Amino acid sequence: MPSALPLADPAPSDGLLPETAAVGAHERNFGVYLHVPFCRVRCGYCDFNTYTATELRGAKQSDYADEAVAELRFGKSVLASSTVPDRPVSTVFFGGGTPTLLPADDLVRMLRGVTDNFDLAPGAEVTTEANPDSVDAAYLRTLAEAGFTRVSFGMQSAVPSVLATLERTHDPARVPLVVQWAREAGLGVSLDLIYGTPGETLADWRVSLETAIACAPDHVSAYSLIVEPGTKLARQIRSGVVGTPDEDLQADMYELADDLLTEAGYGWYEVSNWATDDRHRSRHNLSYWTGEDWWGVGPGSHSHVGGVRWWNVKHPAAYAQRIAAGESPAAGRETLDDETRELERILLLTRTRDGIPIRTLAPEARTAVAGLIAEELVDARQALLGRLELTRRGRLLADAVVRRLVGD
């Protein structure tokens, strides 16, 4: 969750949504995202809305679970008062920050806040992110017994020098151990990797991929390092302390990831995500890419219901003050117009393996498809069957494909 919040309209203190938010709600899934904005240390590349203990200034980690539960109660009331129909929660995702810096019982209490207010759909996916050094076997068992189904470990790399550049604190040798503990608890496992760190070689990246695959997770995410303005890493690059990420090398790293993961039986389903089969795709992330509804809990969290998007105040102290006053913690919101919703639909669905039905594109976008086929950016066979699906070359140039489709 990037730390910078967009500029838009003020959000009402009662949180009420316009009537349009309820239109078609029965046709959309509903999820809950719970942001836990705490980290033991701040990684130099990270632009997420996170805080170390010295940055909380009046907020307390020990109070956070109760504040999150209070926002869930508030959300239930807002949706009911806005005539948005009740729907069971299909997916729950605890992100951060490091959710597992909180005691396991706090996460369990927050999940209970979801079920008390919204109910869980049968077979709901319940995920938490975790650092490899922030959990043990007992912690993971507690989560599984409470209804968590999945854990996503921030592995990032298996190479100590790369982890040091990223300022990650865990021992890479711990990753197989925490995966084993998660398996023993009955949890599904995803591993998150980052490639393109300054100084990382293609051989380093191969080591990380092979180590991850050897752990046999259900799901792997591999993201290219993006140097965000204002981060410590950006300052280090600007001052010459570390080098600038090499885009050509990053492309080679992506191709290596796709080769090794495909050989190991993983299939891509979004540009940066691979799973052993459809059952192990991240259903929560898919809900973002396919325009479903979700309520985001916590400082800086974003929510979306029926084309209305809003985001909470960033700092945990400001968030706690709003919650204690019984007011919406939202800092701003926007109602998306039809043009913006169509742009986002193309932007997001283009990145997925399921792609976009060509018949749903505007006429001018459909005329671009032939050129995209000729340049081997989209799959010719799938296009003949009526679906726009990126080739691997297209995945590397996904932004350019989107620009062609929207006429930029």
TrEMBL record:
<keyword id="KW-0004">4Fe-4S</keyword>
<keyword id="KW-0479">Metal-binding</keyword>
<keyword id="KW-0411">Iron-sulfur</keyword>
<protein>
    <recommendedName>
        <fullName>Heme chaperone HemW</fullName>
    </recommendedName>
</protein>
<dbReference type="GO" id="GO:0006779">
    <property type="term" value="P:porphyrin-containing compound biosynthetic process"/>
</dbReference>
<comment type="similarity">
    <text>Belongs to the anaerobic coproporphyrinogen-III oxidase family. HemW subfamily.</text>
</comment>
<dbReference type="GO" id="GO:0005737">
    <property type="term" value="C:cytoplasm"/>
</dbReference>
<dbReference type="GO" id="GO:0051539">
    <property type="term" value="F:4 iron, 4 sulfur cluster binding"/>
</dbReference>
<dbReference type="InterPro" id="IPR013785">
    <property type="entry name" value="Aldolase_TIM"/>
</dbReference>
<dbReference type="Pfam" id="PF04055">
    <property type="entry name" value="Radical_SAM"/>
</dbReference>
<dbReference type="InterPro" id="IPR007197">
    <property type="entry name" value="rSAM"/>
</dbReference>
<keyword id="KW-0143">Chaperone</keyword>
<comment type="function">
    <text>Probably acts as a heme chaperone, transferring heme to an unknown acceptor. Binds one molecule of heme per monomer, possibly covalently. Binds 1 [4Fe-4S] cluster. The cluster is coordinated with 3 cysteines and an exchangeable S-adenosyl-L-methionine.</text>
</comment>
<keyword id="KW-0949">S-adenosyl-L-methionine</keyword>
<keyword id="KW-0349">Heme</keyword>
<dbReference type="GO" id="GO:0004109">
    <property type="term" value="F:coproporphyrinogen oxidase activity"/>
</dbReference>
<feature type="domain" description="Radical SAM core">
    <location>
        <begin position="24"/>
        <end position="270"/>
    </location>
</feature>
<dbReference type="InterPro" id="IPR058240">
    <property type="entry name" value="rSAM_sf"/>
</dbReference>
<dbReference type="GO" id="GO:0046872">
    <property type="term" value="F:metal ion binding"/>
</dbReference>
<keyword id="KW-0408">Iron</keyword>
<dbReference type="InterPro" id="IPR006638">
    <property type="entry name" value="Elp3/MiaA/NifB-like_rSAM"/>
</dbReference>
<dbReference type="InterPro" id="IPR034505">
    <property type="entry name" value="Coproporphyrinogen-III_oxidase"/>
</dbReference>
<keyword id="KW-0963">Cytoplasm</keyword>
<dbReference type="InterPro" id="IPR004559">
    <property type="entry name" value="HemW-like"/>
</dbReference>
